[in-house]
Amino acid sequence: MTTPCDMLVFGGTGDLALHKLLPALYYLHHEGRLHPQTRIIALARQARERDAFRALVERHCRAQVARADFDIDSWRDFAERLDYHAIDASQRADFDRLARRLGPAEGRVRVYYLATAPDLFEDIAAHLASAGLAGPEARIVLEKPIGHSLESARAINVAIGAVFDESRVFRIDHYLGKETVQNLMALRFANALFEPVWRAGHIDHVQISVSETLGVENRGSYYDHAGAMRDMVQNHLMQLLCLVAMEAPVRFDAESVRNEKLKILEALRPIAGLDVKDKTVRGQYGAGTIGGHDVPAYYFEKNVDNDSDTETFVAVQVDIDNWRWAGVPFYLRTGKRMAKKGSQILIQFKPVPHRLFEGGEANCLLIRLQPEERISVQLMAKSPGKGMRLTPVELDLNLAQAFPQKRRWDAYERLLLDVIEGDSTLFMRRDEVEAAWRWVDPILRGWQEHYQSPRPYAAGTSGPEQAHNLLERHGHAWLE
Ligand code: BG6
Predict the structure, then answer these.
(1) Which residues hold NADP(+) (predicted)?
(2) Which of 133, 157, 174 is the last residue before a domain boundary?
(3) Using CA positions, which residue lies closest to atom 5 of ligand 1?
(4) Residues 6+ away with beta carbon under 8 Å from 10
(5) What is the domain extent for residue 81?
(6) Ligand 1 pocket residue status of 231, Cβ below 6 Å
């Protein structure tokens, strides 16, 4: 069981809180991981009665939590912890009211989870400080994206840093809380098998691909200003890239892991000017069909500009300038309204140096993060019968089957527990976030300067043609 805690969620009635954070907290409660004195307080602008808020959360928990895990007694106890407090984040006086309502911390950890737009982060931190709510017991959680550029991210980091020292700042990237993403570290650093071949010389290229079938749902007004580069690449895909490419940390602790990730971010070859055209592809979905349903074009989505040129798809070739990875392209790709939902990492090895047999392909290691969690290695085997004909076969590890009795945790459950326990290993450090923006900013600028408007692709496909060309010219192809 964790330390007693006040969990305060700013943006407490938004999509993230209702769909992810509160159901995750319900699970933690249901499994006895929250201290009996832990309180959960949602904060948002609108005035609401506590009971109406609880009913709203119940509706969402019932929808998000597996039926077998939604226990009515458990829910009632959980609801007792839930409270609602109306606040205008721009009003200093509202924070004094909040302080009075909360009373003294009395040994509780105070977690402020900022599930709001990043332009409120600075105000909230400053007001928390001036209302005396940012003492040593307080921790702050920042949702991505942190800012919309290097400059804005720095300004946020400076403002937050003026109130909370770095050990109390938790920049969340929920991909790091995913079971398979952590398994990637187990695979690399707990098995001697892979390390000797995990480098240029043995690996031909790497693909990291995150496809979604969803569009922008109710988030059009945020997304239309962000786009896939800021929403997915700057954080989730770059974090995955770091975990694939980094050196083994000395210890599995926050500083050691993050030091190694930072070295990768600093070794990324900049993409700027005309290189942007050559190494990146941006796309935007048009109308199409997914799973038998017609879906509208992006620019017809709610709260999206009719002539929007925001990208909903990005493919990019990344080069890492260090000894381990010299000459090995990493291809990143993400898109909304693609044919299938799936996140995967493909490590494509080089062919054997000298062929003895007919046929045969190079080995590859495929790590599927979702929907299923699988790790498979493609090996060459002899086809039965006369002669030495080779056929690819798969060694396939399905993690859900390997641990059938274990419930798969949602990323937010783990990360919320880590915040309460003060463990920031799976969170982004300030310098990491800024290094990622330093690499992303010139690409965003290049798109603007060269008027690289997004290439259209029909919803329900694998993205624009140009994303395939990006690989084909090197003799590679996306694994679909
Ligand atoms: C979020 C993005 O961070 O990640 C969303 O803002 C995206 O646009 C989501 O849909 C994808 O997360 P997951 O866990 O469903 O792959």
Answers:
(1) 45, 144
(2) 174
(3) 231
(4) 43, 44, 87, 89, 112, 113, 114, 115, 116, 120, 124
(5) 5-174
(6) yes
